[in-house]
Input
Amino acid sequence: MNRRTIRKLTNILALGLSGLATAIGLFFLGAILWTLIRNGLAGVSLKLFTAMTPPPGGGGGLLNAIYGSVVMTLIGILIGGPVGMLAGTYLAEYARTSRLSTVIRFVNDVLLSAPSIIIGLFVYELLVIRMGHFSAIAGAVALAIIAMPVTVRTTEDMLTLVPQGMKDASTAMGAYPWRTITSVIYPAARSGILTGLLLAVARISGETAPLLFTALNNQFWSSNLAAPMANLPVVIFQFALSPYPNWQQLAWSGALMITLSILVLSISARLVLFSLNSGGRH
Amino acid sequence: MNTVAAIDPRHAAGQRLRERVFRSATLVAAIAVLALLGGVAISLLAGAWPALARFRVGFLTREIWNPVTEQFGALAAVYGTVVTSVLALLLAIPVSLGIAIFLTEMAPLWLKRPVGVAIELLAAVPSIIYGIWGLFVLAPVLQRHVQPWLIAWLGPLPVIGRLFQGPPYGIGVLTASFVLAIMVIPFISAVMRDVFETVPDVLKESGYGLGATTWEVIWQVVVPYARTGMIGGIMLGLGRALGETMAVTFVIGNAHRIGSSLLAPGTTISASIANEFTEAVGDLYSSSLIALGALLFLITFSVIAAARFMLLRLERRALSSV
Output
């Protein structure tokens, strides 16, 4: 074999392996989804959405857990979203290049990838010990802390995309920066910011570790924010590891539901982003 | 009569006030980001203090973890955390590199986006899902088909054979690393893809112009150019793997000991906290778990900070070359 053949073969082999690596990645996504559908679909019925989590052996659904997850995710995004948007606004509009901004950006990036269980411990120290018991509000605060850095990042990125000319036009008409930001920049970046919020919701709605010792869990219906509240991730955690078949079935169905909703959220957020990007090029 | 807004003194004063309020609100929110990191560090340190004051350096160097006699050491958990993460990276790096190469250099345009999004979705799947999938699907497969093979073929070898001895439990360090690898692949491959795309076309075209094959251009032009960014992406993946909790909790077996075999159960820092924190009786026990948390925070903080620093330098270089 001459040198040229060897080089050609190496090329084919390496590129083939790269294709294989991609196939491996796609295979695992498919395998996980297939497992969830196969095991979870059997337990999907109206009862899943109308009945409470059952004791071992009985029939039941996930209503209290679904309610708890929705409530805590909503409160989490309602706290973390606006704070994150304001901080992102500061970074993008008021102090794009200052030393403080560089530090904040760096710290935000660190928070973005910090282990979520650490946030759980922090909120436990901050709220649970002081209140004396686990509570839904502690869970929501933990989720807010995880949602915040995501929103800071996406808001800053989206505001930076707004054309400088629009900002200058507003300033030239005598508008103060706050007026320019709220009346010109926010509307221009609206769908981008909303996408960021969607991504933040997708991120926190599946979080389990920070809820383990903040919201804990609740076998029963509870709408009291100061008391422990059921939530899908922790219910899945407890039920999946239990020896009871009816609990395990509910865990699979819950897992299927939560994954599908997160995938739908992530895909629609990306669709909005793609249409934004292709729209901006004209 | 119309009054021009800007010269009405009351109106102008109102505008200035609103400006001050809005600006302060954004500044306070931005400072909150800093305060949050400080608050996390301080509260972890305060919570860990009783355990650190009691065990001192011994907390870092002892393997013992006995809630009954209240003797706690972090060594087994730290060992498990480091070993699973490093092993996960060894498995994930080649696959991520392959995916990044496929997406930037090989895939036709119509395939790029759907495949890229599918890989990114792997990162959106919650970690608890990886946990139950790992426990009920992956672990039995590894136990039946992969581990007996590893024991039979690699077990008798000198030196590395010790890593593959003992019964095939299914769950354990190796399984946890495997799940972690799948979880960090989307993060590493996304960063690698992004840095590969910053390589100027002129460089690649010069390579092709000299008659290089696609692989030679990738290996001798693209990879050297993107090296810093690739390392940054790998460290970002390492930061993820070190702190990952739920998936590992399901499949590692939760044994506070350092086994020489990768097939044996072990534990990690985050898995110990997730498993034991709500059931920890006594101040010293919970304080020791928080001390573990503080240790994890310190380790991941350094890794993530290093990764971000590398990627930041890269961004500056990209900006200055424009």
